[in-house]
Amino acid sequence: MAVWQNPRRIAACLAGVMLAACAGAASAQYQPAQFDLSALPSYQPEQLALGVVRIYGTPLEGLVGRWAAEFRARQGHVRLHAYLINTSQAFAGLVTGQADIGLMGHRTWHTPLEAFEETFGYSPLEIKFASGSYDDPQGSTPGLVFIVHKSNPLASLTLQQIDGIFGAQRTGGWDGTQWSTAAARGPEGNIRTWGQLGLSGEWVNKPIHPRGSDVTLSNWADLIERVAFKGGTKWNPALYEGPRADIAWKAQGKTRDQQIIEGVESDPLAIAFMFQRVVNSTQADVKVLPVAVKPGGPFIAPSAQTFFDGSYPLRNGAYLYLNRVPGQPLPPRDKEFVRFVLSREGQQIVADSRIFIPLNADQLQAELKKLD
């Protein structure tokens, strides 16, 4: 009863209801992308799978359930045991020997890899089974887009410029669990004014106001660190960071994502990394920039298709991890299950789920080769 006697809480509740209603309407109107999977190989069993495949990790029960049902229709002598509580259980299960496959909605981080390698003395087998979502309201592990104020004349970005804007000088970076000085760079690589990005006139000496979320430890920080910072973990100290798990902000009927977008809409000097689905759901009046891997291009605009064909560089992924002793084959039941996931049938299940984007033919073949 006290809630309804507090005007501020009333406003917060109404804002939350309106936000949920808008999100629901956007989801209902969304037309899922269609992906051509005709070039992917159909699953053909190579070995008889016997026993139990134990899968631990990210709670993707619907996806794993459909994989299990379709796989058992083709390999009737195998059963699947799934313990899908949270992502951390993937490597907990592998390290303790309780799991055959670790399922993760994102690429694993440095610490779980260290734990695995300290336990077994070698690296786990990493299989990418999907790309992260683009703008689907039902999607997960979204890739990143970079946004600026609508009046900003900047037309595009390169990975080196993203590093210069959001990163800082560093002595090296992580390549898996190994420290490498190949990623080192000095302060001359920092980009702190719009003139350094080629803008002229009144923009030349204007400071860049970078914004983003969860750079301390998140899938999105890890993506930028791996792809743009080349394994480095040092960020621009001027970054305005909006932690997405900020409960106090949610109590006001908003999210940190909205706050970041509103900051860009109101500040011509701002630039931020964000999710396209949030840009869409908030109907943000911002400019989304194409990104190039190398100076000079090609500059690729983010889209469901460029996420699928792999040309847009700041896309995420979802992974399976297995404990394969170097020089030894995987157990047939585990190998056959992964082969099914990496088949046309398995990838169609991924596409139908709308959680992730399926692999294209080239990506899938690269993953299949890891099983040899």
Q: What is the CATH topology of the largest domain? A: D-Maltodextrin-Binding Protein, domain 2
Strand content: 15-25%
Stretches with pLDDT under 50, minimum 5 residues: 1-22
How much helix is in the residues?
25-40%
**How many distinct helices?**
13
CATH architecture of the largest domain: 3-Layer(aba) Sandwich
How many domains is the backbone divided into? 2
Radius of gyration: 22 Å
Q: Given the helix and strand composition, which structural class is it? A: alpha/beta
* CATH domain class name of the largest domain: Alpha Beta
Q: Quick one: biggest sheet?
A: 5 strands, mixed
CATH superfamily of the largest domain: Periplasmic binding protein-like II
Measured distance between first and last alpha carbons: 64 Å
Number of E-type strands: 14
Describe this structure in words.
The strands form 4 sheets. A 5-stranded mixed sheet has the order 2-1-3-14-4, with helices on both faces. A 5-stranded mixed sheet has the order 10-9-11-5-12. It has 372 residues and is α/β, with parallel strands linked by helices. Helix content is 35%, strand content 16%. It has helices at 7-29, 61-74, 89-96, 110-120, 159-166, 219-227, 247-250, 256-266, 276-281, 304-309, 332-341, 344-353, 361-369; strands at residues 51-57, 78-83, 101-104, 125-131, 145-149, 157-158, 173-175, 178-180, 209-212, 240-241, 270-274, 286-289, 291-292, 317-322. The N and C termini lie far apart (64 Å). The chain is globular. It is built from 13 helices and 14 strands. The relative contact order is 0.20. The chain folds into 2 domains: 51-134 and 318-369, 3-Layer(aba) Sandwich (D-Maltodextrin-Binding Protein, domain 2), CATH 3.40.190.10; 145-301, D-Maltodextrin-Binding Protein, domain 2 (3-Layer(aba) Sandwich), CATH 3.40.190.
